[in-house]
Design goal:
11% strand, two-stranded parallel sheet, four-stranded parallel beta sheet, 38% helix, 13 helices, alpha/beta
Length: 314
């Protein structure tokens, strides 16, 4: 999952009072697009954990049909079906959302430019020859989880995290002078179910916590947790997961948690998932041929979308 997915759900929630999200089955994704990067279990964990989502429907079909739309409108009392302004084309060349548009109950949201699953997969594929796999030690959560970052190679992401965009994701709340603040850090380079679960666990410790999840986040956090950081944000507890990526190249000889450990405010949380950025990258590389073909096809579609969009704007 990436920022564009979360932003789409944020926009969709703003169109109504409740947001019901359908998550397509593994079988349907494989049929239409090739093997999914995340399993249905992982995707359900991610989607259901987002604050804009009120209900999730698992294992929905990829293509909208009259029967399925009838189920949505009658059984789930859906008023509108929402999708981005980017094309969603079926194998026969038709618009996957044409049936919804014909009913007059379709709403369109803006695609988030500068980031896409296609770009992320492409960056992982571009590292195929230079990557060395390290599956024995993995990171669920936390500290700068991608040694030699699996998704840092290849083409650069053009997503710009402008302050206005960041504010849109904030709850607008800040911890008061008496609040106990829990801090958890990480690169969160490729957000997955392991991240979501560990953040839920961290959130259970106190009302507020810094860096990620629903309350507030500190961008550009230092690699090591310093006394200045603890004092500035009034941090009461620093936590991290029990499972960690092999980060020897990052750590060197220093322990990034030595300060909170000395202060007696460091705790380990049991990592609820073993999925990691490394294992996700390895899954993509194991199906290199399939993902490469899909990536090339999607790249052409996305380039066409942007060219047509910019021509229309001119």
């Amino acid at each position: 999952m990436h920022y564009g997915h979360a932003n789409a759900l944020r926009q969709a929630k703003a169109l109504g009072d409740e947001l019901v999200v359908g998550v397509i089955s593994d079988e349907e994704i494989t049929l239409y697009k090739g093997p999914p990067v995340f399993s249905i279990k992982g995707r359900l964990t991610l989607v259901s954990g987002l604050k804009w989502v009120d209900e999730v429907i698992p294992n929905i079909p990829y293509a909208l049909s009259e029967d399925f739309m009838s189920t949505l409108f009658n059984d789930y009392r859906i008023d509108y079906i929402v999708h981005g302004d980017d094309p969603c084309i079926l194998s026969d060349g038709t618009d996957a959302y044409a049936p919804a548009k014909k009913t007059g109950r379709h709403k369109q949201i803006k695609r988030t430019e500068g980031i896409s699953s296609t770009d992320i997969v492409g960056r992982i594929l571009s590292r195929k020859d230079s990557m060395t796999s390290s599956s024995t030690e993995s990171d669920n959560c936390v500290n700068n989880e991608t040694n030699n970052s699996f998704v840092s190679g290849g083409q650069m992401s053009h997503f710009l995290p402008a302050s206005r965009r960041i504010v849109q994701f904030s709850s607008g709340k800040s911890p008061g002078p008496c609040s106990r603040v829990v801090y958890i850090d990480g690169a969160f380079d490729l957000f997955h179910a392991g991240h979501m679960e560990i953040l839920k666990n961290a959130k259970n410790w106190e009302i507020f916590f810094w860096l990620a999840y629903t309350q507030t986040r500190q961008l550009g956090a230092p690699f090591g947790v310093t006394k200045d950081l603890i004092t500035t944000f009034n941090i009461s507890l620093v936590v991290r997961g029990t499972v960690a990526e092999n980060n020897s190249l990052w750590y060197g000889s220093s322990d990034p948690y030595s300060v909170p450990k000395t202060m007696g405010i460091f705790r380990l949380l049991k990592s609820p998932e073993v999925i990691t950025t490394s294992s996700i990258a390895e899954r993509i590389l194991a199906n290199h041929g399939i993902y490469q073909e899909r990536y090339s096809r999607k790249q052409v579609t996305e380039r066409k979308y942007y060219v047509e969009k910019h021509v229309a704007a001119d």
